[in-house]
Amino acid sequence: MSSLIPTMRHVRGFDVARPLSIGMLVFMMLPLVFLPLLSIFIFGTSKGLASFWAALTAADAIFALKLSMATSFWATVFNVVFGLFASYVLSRYNFWGRNALIVTISLPTAIPTAVAGVALLMLWGPYGILGRLLRPQGIEVMFTAGAIILANIFVTFPLAFGVIKPVFDTMSRSLEEASATIGATRWQTFWHVTLPSLRGAIVSGALLTFARAVGEFGSTIMVSGNLAGRTQTAPLYIFAKFNEGQIEAANAIAIVLALFSFLIFSVLFFARDWLDVD
Amino acid sequence: MAKAQQARSKEHSYPGPVKDSGSAYAASILGLSKSFGKASVLENITFHVAEGEALVLLGASGSGKTTILRIIAGLEQPYTGQIILHNKDVTELPARERGVGVIFQSYALFPKMTVEKNIGYGLRIRHRPRKEVKKTVNELLQLVQLEEHRKKYPSQLSGGQQQRVAIARTLAYKPEVLLFDEPFGALDAQTRSHLRREIRALLKKVNVPAIFITHDQEEALELGDRIAVINSGHIEQIGTPAEVYNSPASEYVATFLGAANMLEGVVRRDHVEVGSALIPAHIDSEKFKEGEPVKIIFRPEDIALSVTQPLPSGRACLAGGIVEETSFVGAYERLRIRLETAGCAPGQTSETPYYLTTETPENQSAKPIIATRPKPETLEVKLQRGDRVFVGLKFFTLLPKTTRNK
Q1: What is the pTM of this model?
Q2: The sheet that has B100-103: what strands, in order across it?
Q3: What's the pLDDT score for residue B95?
Q4: Which residues pair with B49 in a beta bridge?
């Protein structure tokens, strides 16, 4: 930009482009992000903290928040463990179809979440390929908390994998070879040598997964059944309350989720150095 | 095969492996071969390492020396051959059961462990009592003089310190043999020569046999009790540094280990005929037949130069020559000398008929030789470009002219 207006670059040693660019960036972010976020806080607390608190502690609201946290937690646990395993296999072994597998694992990033929901329904739903067979046995996968976890995993798996695998790829093989020559078993090497080097990636992957899973809407609304007090997660609660016209109720939960994601990203951003310390 | 060296004094035998009474060899590598696809990487590699001995595998990159090391460590499998460590065949054992200490070129210290954790790793994974781990770690920290750095992480140490941690880490579990992979590749020249002496002293102290691999001839000469010169997957020569340097078994060894000049000649009873000169030589009649064409290999420092005839030290004169270039290289002077086709007789000029005793006399006269002179000599007799000199040989090696297969 400064090359387009060379005369503006330096006015008596002062770089005009600098404050101008920064100001422009902030100005652009205002209507896009800052103001919308600010609005939920202003609106949510406009009727006083008491009504905000009441909206927050409504039984269904509490349940929705708890359900979101629980399902996201289990999805995160799965993602970290399986993400580690997948990264290990795909970065340590070279085999036919390896790249195809990497693409497949990463694909859900690009799939609309509603499609993910439909896909899960087509497999596990009452008329789905597997669901049809399971139903007579009394096994119902969809419209349960388990379905929400499945949807969360489907949508968030590439996140943990995408953070962990590059670290595996760049990790020197000689560390593992050294450990082996010293006398360690594969498991000891993984536990004492490989895993500590992945600490930062694991925490980042977990936080990203968790943040994304807590907010997941598109796939969850399709597979959960959206039953208040039973399978309604926090984002679904916000949507439902808003549709019912209970804007304060929707807003209270929105504030909680906004603060929560803010917290997670602060940790991710500021703890980076600590996590990657050598 | 060079003779095995007997285990040397073991007054500080900490923490070397228990010596097996059955054999003087700490490690025997027998008939290793390996190929990747059709390309043969190693051919019938056989050598032994005596107790407490330091053997250097010297070779250019791609010569296969790293593969040998990785096979001994168990990180790669040979096609054929055996690895015997202290009378135990470990060929089929995985790396972790071999008890071999590898000092990787990058040191491969565990980045999330402190110095003392790194050193104690081998004992911790063997579930040794905490007290024993602590004691051994303390002893090793003292041995490699890193006591004040025990709580540091590898990234906080210099290259030389990291290397000492890597060595201590392997010594902790009393390795059968230490393998050093290009140990000084990542260090600057000054640190290098300093560390070489340090490691050599350390190895003598702990009396653990060691195999080094390097492409640096200076390093090989300084570190090794013996040197094995590896060329494209086979051993060209194995012997003490003096043997390998002074009597190279092949032209490759001669040129890889230091600079060497080469001339062609013919065996004449107890002489070698080079051009018109007859040089007295000890001819091994089992190796060379009368009239057999040979290569005469000699080092730049083995050349005697004189501006007068006969040569001062009583050496037979090889040829006259013209100084083409002189350069000052610190401790000595290097000269490029073009030999004349004419012999050494005074007053002879190049018009004099030349005895065509070798097949390609043109090659010889066209090829300048490199000579070096120590400083005192350069001060005494100044030589410059264009000066005529007489060239004699103080020392040389004869090799058959036909390159032996393999």
Answers
A1: 0.77
A2: B100-103, B177-181, B210-214, B54-59, B226-231, B234-239
A3: 93
A4: B27
The whole-number average pLDDT for the span B137-153 is 93
Higher pLDDT, B286 or B257: B257
Contact criterion met (CB < 8 Å) for A181 and B101? yes
Residue B187, φ and ψ in degrees, nearest 5? -115, 160
Alpha-carbon span A105 to A100, nearest angstrom:
9
pLDDT digits (tens, 9 = 90+) for B330-351: 888 899 888 875 555 544 444 3
Q: What's the one-letter identity of residue B248?
A: P
Q: Mutate which of A172, A177, A181 to disrupt the B interface (most B C-beta within 10 Å)?
A: A181
Burial call B308-337: b when 16+ CB within 10 Å, e when fewer: eeebeeebbbbbbbebeebeeeeebbebbb
Q: If DSSP codes are grouped into helix, strand and coil, which group holds residue B50?
A: strand
Contact at CB, B108 and A199, closer than 8 angstroms? no
Which DSSP category does B231 fall into?
A: E
pLDDT single digits (tens) B149-196: 999 999 999 988 999 999 999 999 999 999 999 888 767 778 888 888
Place of tokens 């482009």: A17
Of A174, A184, A185, the CB nearest to B108: A174
Residues of A in contact with B173 (CB under 8 A): 182-183
